[in-house]
Amino acid sequence: MTFSLVVRDGERFGVVVSSSSPAVAARVAHLRPGVGAAASQNVTDPTLGTSLLAELADHGDAERALAGVTGAARNARSIAHRQLTVLGRSGPGFVYSGAHTLGKHASATAEGAVAAGNMLCGEHIPGVLLDAYSAASGELEERLVTALKAAVEAGGEEGPVHSAGLAVVAEVEWRVTDLRVDWADDPVDRLAELLAVWLPQRDDYVRRGLDPASAPSYGVPGDR
């Protein structure tokens, strides 16, 4: 029901995801500035993404974080239903796909990236995500959306997708990009349209948070 890509780009971390279910990014995408990123998918338990980031914040080892969460006694009864990915400040990403992961599922890892999916049209989809991201140019957000488009064009899920999301963290304590299409017939195209609106303004909104006196005005009534 879901395929995702988690990447590291210098000090930035990003997650892009799509699914046949609604509001997928609200449940799946987990990021913490300066720490790492994770995806918790397949019969999703969002607390597992939070736990992975807490482990990473504690010791910084992505493989150890994944082992700690999947091996925790509190998760023993349900962990076989989950698919998790995690990426830290260095090294490759890591994946766990439980025995009850839905349908055709697969994953692919690289230095600074990890992709995984379930209910896929084929096991090639995570590799498509990685390859398309590596070949893309532009801002991190643009490369992530390019990868998601390539995965959909390569077949994506077994059925049509209806939601998609993109999130990026950088040097500040909030998501510098957080875009979602929670229900649509063409969510990945809609996500690309949202990004085209957002990206030229992204850094200005960071400035508004850090130094409002120097931030630009957008001419909105009541806005300086």
UniProtKB/TrEMBL annotation:
Superkingdom classification of source: Bacteria
Pfam families attached to this UniProt entry: DUF1028 (PF06267)
InterPro entries: DUF1028 (IPR010430), Ntn_hydrolases_N (IPR029055)
Protein name stated in the entry: DUF1028 domain-containing protein
Organism: Streptomyces mordarskii
